[in-house]
Amino acid sequence: MFTVEQIEHAHSKVQSGADFPNYIKEIKEFGVRSFETWVKDSHTEYFGENGYTTTSQPQYDVLAIENKVNKELFINQLKRHQRGETDYMKFCEDCAQTGIEKWIVDLNKFTCIYYDKAGNTILTEDIPH
Asked: Could you tell me the residue ranges of all domains in the chain?
């Protein structure tokens, strides 16, 4: 079984979106199969084998998520983050500003899916591995 502390230690090595693929590989080795991160406060629920779950604490004060999605702006901001131009907090603020409520990462499929408040898929990305 993995712990939030193990995952947070791995995440501490992530300085920008450019570091995300290595983080994914590391936590997959711990046994994480998927996780769901909520933009409002960055609490994350991690899922493993046999129904195992663990949840992190909120990481910052609650952000207001816009009701209207601006997909084009979100994609531009996501690309900036992936190039290492923004840190995690800025990325979360950008998500909130563009109407992204959460993302779900599937470590078996190596996908990251971003959702709006209504539960609609806004973007599905393949994670390099």
From this structure: 4-126
Beta-ladder partners of 54:
46
CA–CA distances in Å: residue 49 to residues 38, 72, 90: 22, 36, 32
Instruction: For 56, list phi and psi in degrees, rounded to 5.
Output: -85, 165
pLDDT in tens, 86-111: 888 999 999 999 999 999 999 999 99
Nearest 5°: the CA angle 20, 25, 30 is 120
Report d(CA 10, CA 86) in Å as an integer.
19
Contact between 14 and 88 under an 8 Å Cβ cutoff? The reply is yes
- May I ask the CATH architecture of the domain 4-126? 2-Layer Sandwich (3.30)
| pTM score of the predicted model | 0.90
Nearest Cα residue to 37 out of 66, 3, 60: 60
Residues 6+ apart with CB under 8 A from 79: none
Distance CA 6, CA 97 (A): 30
